[in-house]
Amino acid sequence: MHRAVSFASFASILVGLALAPSPASASPDKAEPAPELAKLREELAAQRAINLQRFHAYRVARVYPHNLYAEGKKNVWTDPDGHLCAVATMMEKGGQHDLVVRTAEEQNFVRIADLTSGPLVDWVLLSGLTQEEVVMIQQPTQADIEMWEAQERAEKRRLARKLRREDNRLAANYIAIEGALKRPVMADAGLDLAAARLAARPDLVRVLHARTAELAEQKAAATAAKKKTKQAKRG
∠ at Cα 75 (201, 5), nearest 5°? Predict the structure, then answer.
């Protein structure tokens, strides 16, 4: 049986974070005043909801990367079969294909927990999730090089069973993580912290405002299309 990580262990990560700003919030652009946090929080909440939907779809699809590179657990951005990790998948679904490919080529074993700046940190700041929450989502995967290299049919079946067990372990962890991230107390704490960090980056604030406007246009277009379809059916 796979042990799911408790909600309490996830929620405790956010305790006290507001007392010490993350290094990921360092800003190269301090000329503009910080925007109103309430507005940032509202826009980040929309991005958070979208990314949690993408994470949910990823968890349910159960197409996870496997560590076929080195013994022990390793964060794998993408494996030889092209399977992306959860974070890479959320980025890919958000239109960041070039960044996903570049990361796979240049730092396939990147750990979000180790980053303090750069395009991946910028994505985190705009995601509606905190860096700590994204670290939770970026689960490492266990290697089994010996069985991977085995060519005999029995070894292949045994490898398949082991990979299924590893998928089950990851799925159990993802269920716990998804549930924790949807808890109001954690969402509120996460959004407060995410908004405070993003406020220090006016350059990224402008990007978030543009994304929010684009989402509003897409929703308006979808509503208009549905209304037109209904009218056509009545006619």
Answer: 90
Q: How far is CA 234 from the centre of its chain?
A: 43
pTM of this structure: 0.62
70's tokens: 């080195």
Burial of residue 90 (CB within 10 Å: 0-12, 13-18, 19+) is buried
Q: pLDDT by residue for the chain (235 residues), tens digit each?
A: 444 444 455 555 554 444 444 444 444 454 454 568 999 999 999 999 999 999 999 999 999 999 888 878 899 999 999 999 999 999 999 999 999 999 999 999 999 999 999 999 999 999 999 999 999 999 888 765 555 555 466 777 778 888 899 999 999 999 999 999 999 999 999 999 999 999 999 999 999 999 999 999 999 999 999 888 888 888 6
How far from 175 is each of 84, 156, 210, CA to CA, in Å? 18, 28, 32
| Pairwise CA distance, residues 208 & 197, whole Å | 13
Distance from C-alpha of 151 to C-alpha of 164, rounded to nearest angstrom: 18
Give which of 204, 185, 188 is closest to 25, Cα–Cα: 204
Following DSSP, what letter does each residue of 169-203 receive, concatenated? HHHHHHHHHHHHHHSHHHHHHHHHHHHHHHTT-HH
